[in-house]
Amino acid sequence: xxxxxxxxxxxxxxxxxxxxxxxxxxxxxxxxxxxxxxxxxxxxxxxxxxxxxxxxxxxxxxxxxxxxxxxxxxxxxxxxxxxxxxxxxxxxxxxxxxxxxxxxxxxxxxxxxxx
Amino acid sequence: xxxxxxxxxxxxxxxxxxxxxxxxxxxxxxxxxxxxxxxxxxxxxxxxxxxxxxxxxxxxxxxxxxxxxxxxxxxxxxxxxxxxxxxxxxxxxxxxxxxxxxxxxxxxxxxx
Lengths: 115, 112
Hints:
The complex is a heterodimer. Chain A has no helices and 10 strands. Chain A is mainly β. Chain A has a single domain (5-98), classed as Immunoglobulins (Immunoglobulin-like, Sandwich). Chain B is mainly beta. Helices cover 0% and strands 60% of the residues of chain B. In chain B, strands 2, 4, 5, 9, 10 and 11 form a 6-stranded mixed beta sheet that branches. Chain B has a 5-stranded antiparallel beta sheet with strand order 1-3-8-7-6, with no helix packed on it.
Protein backbone atom coordinates (compact mmCIF):
# COMPACT_ATOMS: atom_id res chain seq x y z
CA UNK A 1 0.00 0.00 0.00
CA UNK A 2 1.05 3.54 -0.61
CA UNK A 3 0.21 4.98 2.77
CA UNK A 4 -0.39 4.23 6.42
CA UNK A 5 -3.52 2.18 6.98
CA UNK A 6 -5.50 1.73 10.15
CA UNK A 7 -8.30 -0.60 11.12
CA UNK A 8 -11.03 -0.52 12.00
CA UNK A 9 -12.03 2.93 10.78
CA UNK A 10 -14.76 3.08 13.41
CA UNK A 11 -15.22 1.15 16.63
CA UNK A 12 -18.13 1.38 19.02
CA UNK A 13 -17.76 -0.51 22.26
CA UNK A 14 -19.31 -0.73 25.68
CA UNK A 15 -17.64 0.60 28.77
CA UNK A 16 -15.43 -2.04 30.33
CA UNK A 17 -14.67 -3.94 27.14
CA UNK A 18 -11.19 -4.27 25.64
CA UNK A 19 -10.40 -2.97 22.16
CA UNK A 20 -7.53 -3.47 19.73
CA UNK A 21 -6.61 -0.93 17.10
CA UNK A 22 -4.28 -1.83 14.26
CA UNK A 23 -1.79 0.21 12.26
CA UNK A 24 0.08 -0.80 9.12
CA UNK A 25 2.91 1.66 8.50
CA UNK A 26 4.49 2.51 5.19
CA UNK A 27 6.84 -0.25 4.12
CA UNK A 28 10.40 0.51 5.16
CA UNK A 29 9.45 3.07 7.80
CA UNK A 30 11.04 2.04 11.07
CA UNK A 31 9.54 4.74 13.28
CA UNK A 32 5.89 4.42 14.29
CA UNK A 33 3.80 6.73 16.45
CA UNK A 34 0.39 6.58 18.10
CA UNK A 35 -1.57 9.72 18.95
CA UNK A 36 -5.01 10.43 20.31
CA UNK A 37 -7.18 13.32 19.18
CA UNK A 38 -10.31 14.34 21.01
CA UNK A 39 -13.00 16.32 19.19
CA UNK A 40 -11.73 19.76 18.22
CA UNK A 41 -8.43 19.25 20.00
CA UNK A 42 -4.83 18.75 19.03
CA UNK A 43 -2.95 15.49 18.98
CA UNK A 44 -1.89 13.87 22.22
CA UNK A 45 1.28 11.79 21.93
CA UNK A 46 0.82 8.25 23.26
CA UNK A 47 3.77 6.05 22.29
CA UNK A 48 6.48 5.74 19.67
CA UNK A 49 8.51 2.84 18.36
CA UNK A 50 11.93 3.27 16.83
CA UNK A 51 13.37 0.20 15.17
CA UNK A 52 14.38 -2.41 17.75
CA UNK A 53 14.80 0.11 20.56
CA UNK A 54 12.57 0.11 23.61
CA UNK A 55 9.45 2.15 22.83
CA UNK A 56 8.87 5.57 24.38
CA UNK A 57 5.70 4.97 26.38
CA UNK A 58 5.74 8.26 28.21
CA UNK A 59 2.46 9.45 26.70
CA UNK A 60 0.27 6.50 27.62
CA UNK A 61 -2.44 7.92 29.93
CA UNK A 62 -2.85 4.85 32.13
CA UNK A 63 -1.82 1.23 32.48
CA UNK A 64 -5.00 0.25 30.61
CA UNK A 65 -3.20 1.33 27.45
CA UNK A 66 -0.49 -0.78 25.82
CA UNK A 67 0.98 -1.17 22.38
CA UNK A 68 3.06 -3.69 20.51
CA UNK A 69 4.92 -3.64 17.27
CA UNK A 70 5.57 -7.06 15.82
CA UNK A 71 8.38 -7.70 13.40
CA UNK A 72 9.16 -4.03 13.16
CA UNK A 73 6.07 -3.43 11.08
CA UNK A 74 2.43 -3.73 12.16
CA UNK A 75 1.46 -2.20 15.48
CA UNK A 76 -1.50 -2.85 17.76
CA UNK A 77 -2.76 -0.42 20.38
CA UNK A 78 -4.80 -2.14 23.08
CA UNK A 79 -7.09 -0.40 25.51
CA UNK A 80 -8.34 -2.56 28.34
CA UNK A 81 -11.49 -1.93 30.34
CA UNK A 82 -12.44 1.03 28.16
CA UNK A 83 -13.90 4.16 29.74
CA UNK A 84 -16.04 6.85 28.16
CA UNK A 85 -13.14 9.31 28.33
CA UNK A 86 -11.22 7.00 25.98
CA UNK A 87 -13.56 8.06 23.16
CA UNK A 88 -11.43 9.82 20.55
CA UNK A 89 -9.79 9.36 17.17
CA UNK A 90 -6.62 7.31 17.44
CA UNK A 91 -4.07 8.22 14.81
CA UNK A 92 -1.03 6.28 13.75
CA UNK A 93 1.93 7.73 11.86
CA UNK A 94 5.17 6.37 10.50
CA UNK A 95 8.41 7.90 9.32
CA UNK A 96 11.84 6.94 8.14
CA UNK A 97 14.08 6.94 11.16
CA UNK A 98 17.47 7.74 9.74
CA UNK A 99 16.95 11.42 10.46
CA UNK A 100 15.15 13.10 13.34
CA UNK A 101 13.59 15.63 10.99
CA UNK A 102 11.72 13.21 8.80
CA UNK A 103 8.09 14.04 8.25
CA UNK A 104 5.45 11.79 9.68
CA UNK A 105 2.87 10.19 7.42
CA UNK A 106 -0.48 9.74 9.09
CA UNK A 107 -3.14 7.12 8.68
CA UNK A 108 -6.85 7.98 8.48
CA UNK A 109 -7.40 7.13 12.12
CA UNK A 110 -9.74 4.92 14.10
CA UNK A 111 -12.72 6.66 15.67
CA UNK A 112 -13.40 4.97 19.01
CA UNK A 113 -16.70 5.52 20.78
CA UNK A 114 -17.17 4.07 24.24
CA UNK A 115 -20.80 3.94 25.30
CA UNK B 1 0.18 22.49 29.37
CA UNK B 2 1.23 21.01 26.06
CA UNK B 3 4.32 22.17 24.24
CA UNK B 4 3.24 23.99 21.10
CA UNK B 5 0.29 26.30 21.42
CA UNK B 6 -1.18 28.01 18.40
CA UNK B 7 -3.01 31.27 18.14
CA UNK B 8 -5.47 32.30 17.09
CA UNK B 9 -7.65 29.31 17.82
CA UNK B 10 -9.81 30.18 14.84
CA UNK B 11 -9.39 32.50 11.86
CA UNK B 12 -11.86 33.45 9.14
CA UNK B 13 -10.67 35.34 6.04
CA UNK B 14 -11.70 36.04 2.46
CA UNK B 15 -10.17 34.18 -0.45
CA UNK B 16 -7.08 36.01 -1.66
CA UNK B 17 -6.15 37.38 1.75
CA UNK B 18 -3.14 36.24 3.71
CA UNK B 19 -3.47 34.11 6.84
CA UNK B 20 -0.98 34.17 9.68
CA UNK B 21 -0.91 31.62 12.47
CA UNK B 22 1.44 31.60 15.43
CA UNK B 23 2.88 28.86 17.57
CA UNK B 24 4.67 29.10 20.89
CA UNK B 25 6.56 26.36 22.66
CA UNK B 26 8.31 25.92 25.97
CA UNK B 27 11.44 23.78 25.74
CA UNK B 28 14.43 23.50 23.43
CA UNK B 29 13.60 21.92 20.12
CA UNK B 30 15.39 20.10 17.34
CA UNK B 31 12.92 21.23 14.72
CA UNK B 32 9.40 22.55 14.32
CA UNK B 33 6.91 21.28 11.77
CA UNK B 34 3.55 22.48 10.52
CA UNK B 35 0.77 20.08 9.57
CA UNK B 36 -2.64 20.60 8.02
CA UNK B 37 -5.72 18.55 8.79
CA UNK B 38 -8.94 18.53 6.86
CA UNK B 39 -11.69 16.01 6.57
CA UNK B 40 -10.73 14.99 3.07
CA UNK B 41 -7.04 14.26 3.42
CA UNK B 42 -6.42 13.75 7.12
CA UNK B 43 -3.18 15.06 8.59
CA UNK B 44 -0.56 16.13 6.09
CA UNK B 45 2.93 17.47 6.66
CA UNK B 46 3.43 20.97 5.23
CA UNK B 47 6.87 22.23 6.12
CA UNK B 48 9.72 21.73 8.57
CA UNK B 49 12.10 24.33 9.94
CA UNK B 50 15.22 23.36 11.86
CA UNK B 51 16.29 25.10 15.05
CA UNK B 52 19.21 26.78 13.26
CA UNK B 53 16.98 28.21 10.53
CA UNK B 54 15.05 31.47 10.76
CA UNK B 55 12.81 31.39 7.71
CA UNK B 56 11.66 28.87 5.14
CA UNK B 57 9.43 29.02 2.08
CA UNK B 58 7.41 26.43 0.25
CA UNK B 59 5.07 27.65 -2.47
CA UNK B 60 2.53 29.95 -0.80
CA UNK B 61 3.78 29.04 2.65
CA UNK B 62 6.31 30.98 4.68
CA UNK B 63 7.45 29.80 8.08
CA UNK B 64 9.56 31.76 10.53
CA UNK B 65 11.22 30.56 13.71
CA UNK B 66 12.48 32.67 16.59
CA UNK B 67 14.20 30.39 19.07
CA UNK B 68 14.91 33.27 21.46
CA UNK B 69 11.16 33.83 21.80
CA UNK B 70 10.32 30.14 21.36
CA UNK B 71 7.83 30.98 18.67
CA UNK B 72 7.05 30.27 15.04
CA UNK B 73 4.62 31.65 12.51
CA UNK B 74 3.02 30.19 9.42
CA UNK B 75 1.95 32.59 6.69
CA UNK B 76 -0.28 31.42 3.86
CA UNK B 77 -0.38 33.96 1.07
CA UNK B 78 -3.20 34.45 -1.44
CA UNK B 79 -5.42 32.02 0.43
CA UNK B 80 -7.88 29.75 -1.35
CA UNK B 81 -11.05 28.09 -0.20
CA UNK B 82 -9.15 24.79 -0.35
CA UNK B 83 -6.85 26.07 2.40
CA UNK B 84 -9.75 25.73 4.85
CA UNK B 85 -8.44 23.30 7.45
CA UNK B 86 -6.91 23.06 10.91
CA UNK B 87 -3.21 23.85 11.14
CA UNK B 88 -0.99 22.37 13.82
CA UNK B 89 2.56 23.08 14.82
CA UNK B 90 4.58 20.15 16.09
CA UNK B 91 7.86 20.29 17.92
CA UNK B 92 10.50 17.62 18.06
CA UNK B 93 12.26 18.05 21.37
CA UNK B 94 16.03 18.38 21.44
CA UNK B 95 16.44 15.66 24.03
CA UNK B 96 13.31 13.70 23.30
CA UNK B 97 14.48 11.48 20.50
CA UNK B 98 11.70 11.39 17.97
CA UNK B 99 8.95 12.36 20.39
CA UNK B 100 6.76 14.93 18.70
CA UNK B 101 4.43 17.28 20.55
CA UNK B 102 1.48 18.83 18.73
CA UNK B 103 -0.38 21.98 19.66
CA UNK B 104 -4.14 22.41 19.76
CA UNK B 105 -4.25 23.94 16.28
CA UNK B 106 -5.68 26.93 14.49
CA UNK B 107 -8.91 26.42 12.55
CA UNK B 108 -8.74 28.43 9.33
CA UNK B 109 -11.82 29.15 7.29
CA UNK B 110 -11.35 30.75 3.88
CA UNK B 111 -14.52 32.20 2.40
CA UNK B 112 -14.90 32.05 -1.37
